[in-house]
Amino acid sequence: MNSKLNHAVAICDPLELAHPDSFLDVQVPYPKALPQDVIVRVEAVSINPADMRARLRKKKDNRINVLGWDVAGTIVEKGNEVSDHFQVGDAVYYAGDINRSGGNCSYHAIDSRLVAFQPKTISVEDAAALPLVSLTAWEALFEKLALAINTNLTIQDDEPTPSLLILGGGGGVGSMAIQLAKLVPNLTVIATTSRKETTEWCLKLGADHVVDHSQALAPQLSKIGYPEVDYILICNSPDTYFDILPSITRPFGKICSIVPFLQSHDFNLLMRKSLSFHWEFMFTRSSFSTHDMVKQSEILNRISELIDQKKIISPRVISLSPMNASNIRKAHQLIASNKTIGKIVIVNK
Amino acid sequence: MNSKLNHAVAICDPLELAHPDSFLDVQVPYPKALPQDVIVRVEAVSINPADMRARLRKKKDNRINVLGWDVAGTIVEKGNEVSDHFQVGDAVYYAGDINRSGGNCSYHAIDSRLVAFQPKTISVEDAAALPLVSLTAWEALFEKLALAINTNLTIQDDEPTPSLLILGGGGGVGSMAIQLAKLVPNLTVIATTSRKETTEWCLKLGADHVVDHSQALAPQLSKIGYPEVDYILICNSPDTYFDILPSITRPFGKICSIVPFLQSHDFNLLMRKSLSFHWEFMFTRSSFSTHDMVKQSEILNRISELIDQKKIISPRVISLSPMNASNIRKAHQLIASNKTIGKIVIVNK
């Protein structure tokens, strides 16, 4: 087994994306399964802004580094302590662990507590688009903002119906967040976009309203009857919005960001309305090996059910094949353009 | 009625606390009840850091301003729309509304939706110490940090028992927070203090551990077996602690502050562990007339029950009498010293 070739796409020196060697086709060792690991034959991966941020952090140490944290593939080997519900031959998917070598390769080792069964009714490339953005949107909406997918929000007669604003609705996380938020009864979902294509995409996914984030938000929100919203999910540049958050959020409102700030801000601005600010970082559970890291497996199994019940769709929009340095470089360039809709998947044919 | 004298203690020009005219004995008009108001004969008030901050914000406009947001007294008049469950003669207490004239006076008008019945088993001066700090601690613990007073926290076998760190346990809010947090089953409550007297006070109120906030916290927390805690309530100078929050908080931990920052901070530090930061400002409900402002009445009625059931005690430590400029100035000086334990009450004899 260990003599098998393992093709991977790696980064080495930190080069400009335009440079043909910014990604390299290499051969890396066949992975070794730790007790809780499965080894997966990678059939499709997707590329996320997280890959871009990891690439920009790469040190000039002349060592290669394999990115890629969204894998769909087949289990080919199990560690000694892996639960019996996983078997060799199972079709699985996962977003993995940013502290381990990534999935842009032919064979990949991953902690089985982060792994779930693929949806049965969609292709492997549609499956690969799901894990990281679904987990991020799920944890943000249902753990951080504490929305409830299964129960009606309690609404009293004198209370306006609750509303969620998704800043940046057209990207991968925004696309999943719109769909998952629409599973919450009585919740009004407002997404922001700046182009006709992304507006149509967000409406197709179920957004109740779309407003333009290249224009002032407050008057647009007032115009659609939501001068203040209860929940805000920030999927793009939180610095842009920070100063208007106190005026567009209701007292006791909750704000969640998945993107770091580029500068410091005066958080006292959020005090008068007793607002809450939540970080959602999908790799927290794997990075800290939390006691509940298996929740990511459970969430992805729920996502598979929702897909198979036709309640949500995969956000894959673009596929590239085969998995090689040239295509992964192309995917990174598309993400860097900030104009992508949904997700980009690389198929390992 | 309106010809009655209404003695009040007011501030006018922003003078140093040491100045004998920093507080003035004045006569103000007898208050007029708005439809939802009750008029209360003030029998005791307590002084909070909120009064001190309001005094420091006073503009040099040569107009008098009455502070005081913790009142215990008797209803003497009702507005047209006040619920029947309030009657003239009822003994009530409340923390009130920072945007209206305060309670440092003989007769005070207040929105009845913020008002509750005093505990039956304690003195009016012990009652006056309760509202603002109880509401702040209750909203922080049970609404913001989402602890549950009535149910066991769900603990799995492989999960450490949950823990709350109260930074600044000896003051008014800290004193109530320790007692209320101890009503949550399975929760370990750690308070910080810096003096022998406050340490003894916090242990008397039920704290499981007390550590010294004048020394490095991390090694002390490690020593008592809690290198990371799940919940943090900041009752004093949040700037002091901001940089260590990421290391002493568990992944997905929740931090709540009741005190504003003096400077900006890098909130990205809280991202890697997906932490949440919550503001608790007790005057949010009254300031924004939220649809649920009556919750403050409900919370205070719960506090009265807990007092009468001997499950918690009033944090009053010092009483001054009568209510006049000299005694209110003395109370402000005590609070400014940062050495008070529990609460200071002024009795209107």
What this model shows, in words?
2 copies of one chain form a homodimer. The first copy, chain A, is α/β, with parallel strands linked by helices and 349 residues long. Chain A has 2 domains: 6-130 and 291-347, Alpha-Beta Complex (Quinone Oxidoreductase, Chain A, domain 1); 135-279, Rossmann fold (3-Layer(aba) Sandwich). The first copy, chain A, is built from 11 helices and 16 strands. In chain A, strands 3, 5, 6, 7, 8, 15 and 16 form a 7-stranded mixed sheet that branches. In chain A, strands 11-10-9-12-13-14 form a 6-stranded parallel sheet, with helices on both faces. In chain A, strands 2-1-4 form a 3-stranded antiparallel sheet, covered by helices on one side. In chain A, helix 3 packs across helix 4 (172-181) and helix 3 packs across helix 10. Chain A is globular. The two termini of chain A are 21 Å apart. The model of chain A has no long low-confidence stretch (mean pLDDT 94). Chains A and B meet through helix 3, strand 14 and helix 9 of A and helix 3, strand 14 and helix 9 of B. Strand 14 of chain A pairs antiparallel with strand 14 (276-279) of chain B, so a sheet runs across the interface.
